[in-house]
Design goal:
Length: 237
């Protein structure tokens, strides 16, 4: 919005050469094959690049879900069978569910080839779009892995197990959006916006703080590290 009069701000698409505004129907696709040199591309050109398998979901192979690192997941969709494909869909779903396998597949969405994971559920098949290998950036530096003693690890495991509960997504709300919506409604109603005091949520544990407290407790119980004594070898007579 404009700071001066509160009006909406519009962004215009302008030709970099002539400076004129370009309408949506005046914009075409192109490919820069050399600096400053382009060829134009039409929808027909993109369709020519597609094969019949690109217009459907082409299964490459099957694998265990644990083989797919979470970093490769992008977006989730529901797979719906085409007319007359109900039986094939159900056969695939039940077979994968029974064998505890997921399918790795490919398709083309728009002008982009997508790598997919087909994941069976109790009621259908989910389609997860996956990043390709060269799209993933590995961590520039892996975190250090300091040595842990058995007491520290046992304490951490105890803490984790004490907080285990079923995942029930309906229990979680976007609290920021709820507060923001309330602020918007209050402003519309002309109410004064009051910043609520910081509240410490009940029964919510900061895992890192709890782990550090557990480790400190173990260290306090053990006391300061003892120096190892070295025995002197007897000198030969």
């Amino acid at each position: 919005m404009c700071r001066e009069d509160g009006s909406r701000v519009k962004y215009k698409k302008v030709c970099a050469n002539c400076g004129k505004e370009v309408a949506a129907d005046g914009i075409i696709k192109g490919f820069e094959f050399s600096p400053g040199q382009y060829i134009t591309m039409t929808d027909a050109d993109f369709e020519k690049a597609k094969t019949e398998k690109d217009k459907t979901i082409h299964i490459l192979h099957f694998t265990e879900m644990r083989n797919i690192r979470p970093i490769y997941y992008d977006k989730t969709y529901h797979a719906v069978p085409e007319a007359g494909g109900d039986k094939a869909y159900e056969l695939l779903r039940k077979a994968m569910l029974s064998e505890e396998k997921v399918a790795i597949a490919k398709t083309v969405i728009g002008q982009t080839e997508k790598l997919l994971a087909l994941i069976p559920t109790d009621t259908g098949i989910l389609v997860e779009t996956l990043f390709f290998y060269d799209e993933i950036k590995e961590m520039p530096k892996e975190p250090e892995q300091p040595e842990l003693n058995d007491a520290e690890l046992t304490m951490a495991k105890t803490l984790v197990n004490s907080m285990v509960k079923p995942f029930e997504p309906e229990q979680y709300q976007n609290e920021y959006q709820v507060r923001l919506r309330q602020i918007i409604e209050d402003k519309i109603a002309g109410k004064e916006i009051v910043t609520p005091p910081d509240e410490k949520p009940a029964n919510v544990i900061n895992l890192m703080d709890a782990l550090q407290a557990s480790i400190r407790q173990v260290e306090d119980q053990d006391g300061p590290p003892k120096k190892k004594r070295t025995r002197k070898k007897a000198e030969p007579a």
